[in-house]
Every structure is written in structure tokens, then in C-alpha cells.
Amino acid sequence: MNLPQLTAGGSLRTIAGSTPARGLAGEWQAGLGMTAITHYAMQSEIAPYCSCTSAANATAGSGAQAAAPAVNVFSVGGIAARFPSLSLEKEFLQTLDESDQDRNIDWLVARYLKQTDNLYIAREMTWLFQQGNTDVYVIHPQSNYELQNLVALLYDPTLSDVGSLIWGIVRGTEGTALPDDGRVGGGLPVLTAKEVYIASSQSYLSAITELTNGTPQNVLPIFAQVFGFAINAGNTDPQRAINYVVLQYISAYAQVYNLRYPSQSQPTSELPTQEPYSLTGIRTAPSAVQGKNKVLDVIFSFTGLQTGLVQQWYCSVDVTGQFPFINAPFQRYYGIG
Asked: pTM of the full predicted structure?
């Protein structure tokens, strides 16, 4: 099993490894585990998934207003592949082994697009980024590197283990929405994926357990609650800040765990009592110190289970550029609100 890699700042990234057991990507179920996956080292640029070169060009000359500036996106969800045309679907069906002709189409897509010889078909598929049963973006992978990881995220029930689940974490830029003209993905914004990697619940659970010396039955609900705050489009600065902390900053989980189960933690000046505190919300506020960058405080609110008293903790995240980063580590928050 591949464990997550923790940096000095306490952030989490999966380590490339063998192909994992796969679960229902994009669908939340408490208690499900998963492992990391290989990133494929194919770096060549690829053509867009459709005949247009961009969503903006698709409407060029139609009298539409100029496309809005691209916005940065950092989000987590499931991946689905759809045929944009009957001709592509027929081409795909010709690649199937005779013994597989009667199988479910989703199973076939997940299995056969993973074959190198079918990469040309994968390039032409319409890739959807989903949260639950909702399509959020049409994904345009920037290169074969991102394309291969999208393919790897497709659900294959023959490879799933009981209690396993993976998600795709996507970083990129959101452009103009496609015309709502009946095509697959019509009306959805196009997300140019500059990075796609695999999030595994088992990697998070292992990292939290190691950092807190917690028990699996206590770690699991903490992970489920905190991770749930990252289910959003990830296309605003507050959402990107929260998602970065939830998806990359493992110390946040440790703090939530230590406040909920103080009897398992060493008392400190910040945690002098043994009263358990439960996480009640996560929000953002502009940091008191900004400088020339845009910095947000990601604030965790906790309520004492015995006294009802409230205490808040935060870390600050710089969201100025495409790549957020921790600006100040987790600490007590004494701001207003």
C-alpha cells in the first residue's frame, strides 16, 4: 500500500505507485479506503477533446461577447468519459474482444481506454468532472500526462475491493462554458486540467492515524467530516483556500482529532483542559496581513461538548496565484467573528 508523502509543512501528496483498487469515484461513502496510483510520464501536448480549439473559439463570429478571463480551479470529484458522437462510439466498439461484446458500456470504457492502443480514442472522449451525480465541468486535459490519469480514474468494478474509493483532484483554469446545444457536456464550463492526481481515503486515514496515534474508528469520522468541506466547484478564492487545506494540509486533520479526543493528546498551553471539542464549521476571512498578495485565513470553529464554549483555530493560505500554499501554520484564532 502506498502511503502519502508528508512535507515539512504537513501537506499531503500521494506517491506514485502501482495501480490501486478502485471504488466509486465521486460518490462519498464513509469508511471506504483506497490507494495511490502511478502518474504516467507521457508529456506530449494533445488536441482538444472536440473539433473546436477552445470554448471561446466555438462561439467566435456568433456575436457573443468576449470570453471572461480564465479563473483558477482546485477541486476534488469523480471522472466520467462520454462519447461525443456515434462515430467515435462505433470506432470504440470495434476494439472490443468478442467475449466482451455484451458487457456494460461503462465497464468496457473503463477497461479498454486503459489500453495504450486506444489512447487515440481517449483523446476524443468528452471528459466530465462530477461531484455526486452532478456534472460540474467538461475537462480538457492539457497533455497525455493528465489524460492518462483521467483514464485511470474511471470506475472498473472488476478491480474494486470492498471498502475502497478514489477521487480525482484536478487543478487548472476554468474557461467559457460550451454552448448548451444538446451535445454531451453542453452548457458546462470547460476546465483545462493542468494537473490531475489521485486522492485515496486510505492514504489520508493512514497519515492521520500516524500523526495522532489515533484509533481507526475515531480517525474515520474526523476524516469524513473534514473532507466533506472540499465538495465544491473550487473556482473561487475562498473555495480554493479551503480545498487546499482539506486536500493538502494533513495537520488540519490532526488538530481536529486532538480537539475531539483530548484524552489521547498531550496537554499543552493551547489545550490545557480535557474537554472534547467538536468541529462545527470551516470558513474563510481576509488575513489581517496581506502585503501585495491575497491571503485568506481558513478558520475552523469548534464547540465544547460539555460547556458549549466556542474556540477557533486557523491557518492562512496564499491564493494569489494558480498554486495556493500555506502562509501561516495552524494556530489559535482570536479574530472577530
From this structure: 0.77
* DSSP code string of 59-74: TTTTTPPPPPPPEEEE
DSSP for 196-228 reads EEEEEHHHHHHHHHHHHT--HHHHHHHHHHHHG
- Return d(Cα 150, Cα 128) in angstroms, integer: 10
Is residue 208 within 8 Å of residue 214, measured between CB atoms? yes
Coil, strand or helix: which one is 82? strand
- Residue 158: the pLDDT is 52
Segment holding 146, helix H or strand E: helix 144-152
Q: What are the average pLDDT values for consecutive 10-residue runs of the chain, which has 337 residues?
A: 38 35 29 29 38 40 55 93 95 91 86 92 95 92 93 69 67 89 90 90 91 92 94 95 96 94 66 82 92 94 94 96 94 81
Q: What angle do CA 140, 146, 148 make, to 5 degrees?
A: 110
Q: Give the pLDDT of residue 266.
A: 56
DSSP 40: P
Closest CA to 204 of 188, 227, 186: 227
**Residue whose C-alpha is closest to residue 164's, from 5, 19, 310:** 19
Residue 302 host element (H or E): strand 295-304
Q: Which residues contact 80 (CB under 8 A, 6 or more apart)?
A: 26, 127, 128, 130, 135, 154
315 contacts 331 by C-beta, under 8 angstroms: yes
Q: What is the pLDDT of residue 85?
A: 94
